[in-house]
Amino acid sequence: MGFHGAGWWSYVRSTGEKPKVTWGLLKRVLRYSNPYRWQIVSMLVAILMSTGLTLLTPLILRNLIDQTIPSKDIHRLILLSLALLIIPILGGGISIVQRRLNASVGEGLIYDLRVALFSRLQRMSLRFFTNTKVGEMMSRLNNDVVGAQNAISNTLVSIITSIIQAAAVLSVMLTLEWHLTLISIVILPLFILAARQLGGRLREIAHQQLEANAQMNAMANETLNIGGALLVKLFGRTEVEVDRFDQHAVDVRDLGVNQAVIGSIFFVIIGLLSAVGTALVYGFGGYMAIRGTFTVGTIVAFGAYLTSLYSALQSLANAPVNFATSLVSFERVFEVIDLPQDIEDKPGAIELKEVSGELVFDDVTFRYEVDEKNLLSDVHRAGQIDNIAAVLSGAKNESADEETHIHTQARIDALDHVSFQVSPGQLIALVGPSGAGKTTLTYLIPRLYDPSAGRILIDGHDLRDVTLDSLATQIGMVTQESYLFHDTIRTNLQYAKLDATQAELEEASRAANIHDFISGLPNGYDTIAGERGYRLSGGEKQRIALARVILKDPRILVLDEATSNLDSESEALIQEALKRVMAGRTSIVIAHRLSTILAADLILVMDRGQVVERGTHEELLAQGGLYASLYHTQFKRERQASLNY
After folding, report:
1. Which residues of 357-371 are buried (b: 16+ CB within 10 A; e: fewer)?
2. What is the pLDDT of residues 268-277, one digit of tens each?
3. How many of the other CB atoms lie within 10 Å of CB of 260?
4. Rounded Cα–Cα distance for residues 8 and 326 (Å)
5. 50 and 107 together in one domain
6. What is the percent of the chain with per-residue pLDDT over 70, rounded to a whole number?
7. Alpha helices in 123-177 (DSSP H)
8. Once rounded to an integer, what is the mean pLDDT over residues 264-269?
């Protein structure tokens, strides 16, 4: 371990505070090691055995030099020589066993923490994901879990090993010659002084290097994901981005060189201090040997013990900071595990089974409030910057408040006292300007959010009184941007029904007008969809999403009928598929097509989070309100085109 770990000088945060170890945190950390207590006990036994073996070698050398060789005892010489061979063999075997135990504990901890973290994140509401960076979640799952594992399997083991080693070596050295022992440890304050003098500079450089690395990685992430890469290519900015990355890489390179140089100076000074201690021991010991009060073998043994002692003392000097730094990762892991869930099953929640599909919005108001206690806080990781702002420009983007008198959909409440009722099997069309609250309304139906006020009922049951799993079973949703995993089309379809047969897949795909397309692919249903389904067109992705919902067979269907960016053939296929999907189901559709609006049993016209008009197409036209305005600006041309056709 020694002084060479980055953790030694990187523990000071940007505020200058040191990582703290509290008893409560320590007890919780130790609870995670409970399942591995026997492995840990076995590891401690292995450490004791290994330390005991390392103490034997200097004593054997002392005996060889002071007694065996001068007395010309061939028999003892052979035995001691064999012992010098057997000791490293035994030590190697113990080391392998210890490493096996250590790896079992470490990897087991990583497994436990990752599963606990992922399980908690999967249960968080949509509000959490819209306010949390994906990179931060990945950091918790990877960097912090590994850092937490390091606290138990590496740092803690190193502390115990160093304590045992230092205590054992000091005990043996004191029995050999207490004067030399005092001389050997008298330079310890010089170690601490050197660490304080150069440690600050090393910490500063390490902090700058972490910041530069974070900026470089963030910039790379912005431009190497599929959306960023597409934007770069469309605007012909490849060389610009290469130059920008080059600037960040230069900073990382230069800081790395500086850190290496300063670190080298640090190690040289530590080496010189060790040399001072060694010189004092050999000088004083040699003087005592010349006077006949000390043997040569004892000096040689002392020299061997001295190396072990300095190594242990260096590790112990680092240990408190390294352990506290590792515990910061545990803090970040526990923060996620302890996050409260704002959407969860209430005690005694009922399970929806036979659902007819009646849906009621009863005076529903909703606001996109962000409760900081339900989000990840900026828990400092040792030596890491607090945030990465304006990665591409390298500077913070200051924007002044601007006043505008243009009528917009900007408001505090996303939904404002919305009430309506949908009977089983009815089709409800939601229309209105962009930002009026249509999508927000649909997000409340599968309980991605809970209303701020009011309630939503399904077959007379408040959504908050039913289990989330049973609610998800009864509701099928197709969003405007259909998401596909980077996997086969088969796997993407089976996400709706894990045990779906090939016949069921084909039946659902035919209903969605996508089976012929899939069958024509080289690998059929085993064709890879690509990252976010980018290997497929927009219409193909939407039809696969529809097939997935058909396979789920929900009683209530919620969909965003977004066909404006599709070609006429894809649009016609989707419209035909939608008729099949909505047949016999309660359907809530954000309507973009006049044909869907005309087929609706009820049209809800939304504006600024309110239902401002409701009725059939003819009724709303007669009112001459917002719907009539939307019809004349958006839908009339479509109807004329269909009549001409």
Report:
1. bbbbbeebebbeeee
2. 777 777 777 7
3. 11
4. 11
5. yes
6. 81
7. 126-130, 134-139, 145-150, 157-176
8. 75
86 and 160 inside one domain: yes
Buried residues in 444-469 as b, exposed as e (16+ CB within 10 A): bbbbbbebeebebebbebebbebeee
- Distance (Å, rounded) from C-alpha 509 to C-alpha 493? 9
Please write down the long-range contacts of 13-19, taking CB distance under 8 Å and 24 or more positions apart: 13/380, 13/382, 13/383, 14/207, 14/380, 14/385, 14/386, 15/380, 18/321, 18/324, 19/321, 19/324, 19/325, 19/327, 19/328, 19/382
Distances (CA, A) of 52 to 88, 162, 167, 175, 341: 12, 13, 11, 16, 52
Number of domains present in the structure of the chain: 3
Residue 507 placed within a domain: yes
**Claim to verify: residue 159 and residue 209 sit in the same structural domain:** no
Cα-only R_g, the chain = 35
Residues 106, 161 within the same domain: yes
Give CA–CA dist 623/619, Å, rounded: 7
How does residue 1 score in pLDDT terms, banded at 50, 70 and 90? very low
Residue 145 lies in a domain: yes
What are the structure tokens assigned to 456, written together?
């939503």
65 DSSP 8-state letter: I
Please answer whether residues 607 and 434 qualify as being in contact, where contact means their C-beta atoms are separated by less than 8 angstroms. no
Q: What is the 3-state secondary structure (H, E, C) of 254-313?
A: HHHHHHHHHHHHHHHHHHHHHHHHHHHHHHHHHHHHHCCCCCHHHHHHHHHHHHHHHHHH
Indicate whether 461 belongs to any domain.
Answer: yes
Q: Is the pLDDT score of 379 beyond 80? A: no
Whether residue 156 is predicted with pLDDT greater than 90 in this model: the reply is no
**Domain co-membership, 29 together with 144:** yes
Torsion, CA 67, CA 68, CA 72, CA 77, rounded to 10: 180
- Shared domain for 285 and 140, answered yes or no, is no
pLDDT band at 360 (very low <50, low <70, confident <90, very high): very high
CA distances from 326 to 33, 356, 482 (A): 15, 54, 41
Query: Under a CB-based contact definition with an 8 Å cutoff, are residues 423 and 386 in contact?
Result: no
On whether both 137 and 199 belong to a single domain, the answer is no
Element (H, E) at 200: helix 188-224
First to last CA, the chain: 79
Q: Domain of 194?
A: 178-293
pLDDT band at 380 (very low <50, low <70, confident <90, very high): very low
The answer to whether the CB of 448 falls within 8 A of the CB of 616 is no
- What are phi and psi for residue 158, nearest 5 degrees? -65, -40
Q: What is the pTM of this model?
A: 0.71
Q: What is the mean pLDDT of residues 190-194?
A: 69
| HSE-CB of 563 using CA atoms within 13 angstroms | 24
Whether the pLDDT of residue 6 is over 60: the answer is: no
Enclosing H/E stretch for 251:
helix 238-290
Q: Tokens at residue 334, please?
A: 């526990």
pLDDT at 409: 62
Q: At what angle do helices 296-337 and 23-32 cross, to 10 degrees?
A: 90
Task: Compute CA 387 distance to the chain's CA centroid, rounded to the nearest angstrom.
Answer: 16
**CATH code at position 550:** 3.40.50.300
Taking the mean position of all CA atoms in its chain, how far away is CA 96? 32
Residues 223 and 168 in one domain: no
- CA–CA gap between residue 471 and residue 450 (Å, rounded): 13
Beta strands in 324-391 (DSSP E): 359-366
Q: Is residue 608 part of a domain?
A: no
